[in-house]
Design goal:
Layout: H1 3-6, H2 11-30, H3 37-49, E1 53-56, H4 63-73, E2 74-75, E3 78-82, H5 89-93, E4 94-99, E5 104-109, E6 116-120, H6 127-130, H7 134-139, E7 141-144, E8 147-150, E9 156-161, H8 174-178, E10 182-184, H9 191-201, E11 214-215, H10 216-226, H11 233-248, E12 252-254, H12 258-274, H13 282-293, E13 298-299, H14 301-305, H15 310-320
Parallel strand pairs: 1-9, 1-10, 2-11, 3-6, 6-9
Antiparallel strand pairs: 4-5, 7-8, 12-13
């Protein structure tokens, strides 16, 4: 493959390096979180795609442990924010404090000033505090007292959330949910994984022995490589057809935004790169539709009362849209129809 077709010079070697780093992270995290291969791969996909991740599930299934394990696997700056009802926006973004000795205001950075920010139980904070993340998640910067501070790259927010019907939680605003590239669930472990957890976690903290297997600079380099993965015009049209169908669905009162379309393509690029490919296939789009779009959709009252779920609506939409192109670059000699 050449750069004119895939956007990747020397793609084989570069993608080999990417998959090798991803495997190191995967194996490192799996020493702490057992039996959750797909969830860990989802986290790595979002990390390399340059997005933010929402992990939603009931308490006690390892949401925070997964977030911390990823953070410790990457040798970069890490901050953890425990979201509570009394957390203030300034605790998240930072605050300017007057120094009487210098007679000047000094900026004290908040919890978002790190490469990886772990936001624990984000929906326990008020909507006002949740909204403090909007600018930094979208633009990679924070504005305090009319001064803008640029965040370091890579920058990733990994937020955990309990189901909103649980006591003491606030639903995330639509604008906040839309800034998360994907949402995943952990689910309960299988019996063998839970038994292994009893043996490995009962006597010691499994995170204590976890060492970094890569660093922030390497992740930034690999994220730049992911952005060069080729997406054919036909796959682009297919992606837009999927997201557009959510806006026209009679079962949805809020469909996917243009940002969601962009996030879907970026995540598909990362997934393709993790598979060692320099181009996106429709299959990449299809397997990421649920985690990337599901948390952004709002059902109509009638659909909700009828027991419908966004996952079912998305499955029906995917089944209704034909796939006519493999997405492979024409120069590789493969068929472009399917």
């Amino acid at each position: 493959m050449t750069s004119t077709t895939t956007g990747l010079e020397g793609a084989s070697g570069d993608l080999g390096s990417l998959t090798e780093v991803a495997q190191r992270i995967q194996h490192n995290v799996e020493t702490v979180i057992e039996g959750k291969h797909d969830a860990i791969r989802g986290v790595i996909t979002v990390l390399l795609a340059g997005g933010h991740l929402l992990i939603e599930d009931v308490p006690g299934v390892g949401k925070t442990m997964l977030s911390k394990a990823l953070a410790r696997s990457v040798d970069g700056t890490v901050r953890r924010i425990q979201f509570t009802p009394d957390l203030l926006p300034s605790d998240v973004t930072g605050v300017s404090i007057y120094n009487q000795e210098t007679r000047q205001f000094e900026f004290r950075p908040g919890g978002v000033f790190a490469n990886i920010v772990v936001g624990d139980e984000i929906n326990r904070a008020s909507p006002k505090t949740q909204s403090a993340l909007l600018e930094c998640m979208e633009e990679g910067q924070v504005t305090v007292d009319n001064t803008t501070y640029v965040l370091d790259e890579p920058f990733m927010v990994i937020a955990t959330q309990n189901p909103i019907e649980m006591e003491g939680t606030y639903p995330l605003p639509e604008a906040q949910r839309d800034r998360f590239m994907a949402r995943i669930s952990m689910g309960y472990p299988v019996e063998s994984a839970e038994l292994a957890m009893l043996n490995s976690h009962a006597d010691a903290d499994p995170l204590a022995d976890l060492s970094p297997v890569t660093n922030a600079a390497e992740i930034a380099k690999l994220s730049a490589l992911v952005r060069q993965v080729y997406v054919s015009p036909a796959v682009q049209r297919y992606t837009v057809a999927v997201t557009s169908a959510t806006r026209d669905s009679p079962e949805l009162r809020l469909g996917a935004s243009p940002r969601a379309t962009l996030h879907l393509v970026r995540a598909a690029k990362a997934a393709a790169a993790l598979d060692g490919r320099g181009y996106v296939l429709p299959d990449d789009i299809q397997r990421l539709v649920q985690p990337v779009l599901g948390h952004r959709l709002l059902l109509t009252a009638e659909a909700a009362m009828g027991g419908r779920r966004s996952a079912g609506v998305l499955s029906a939409i995917l089944a209704s849209i034909p796939v006519r192109d493999t997405g492979r670059p024409a120069s590789d000699g493969s068929s472009t129809h399917r």
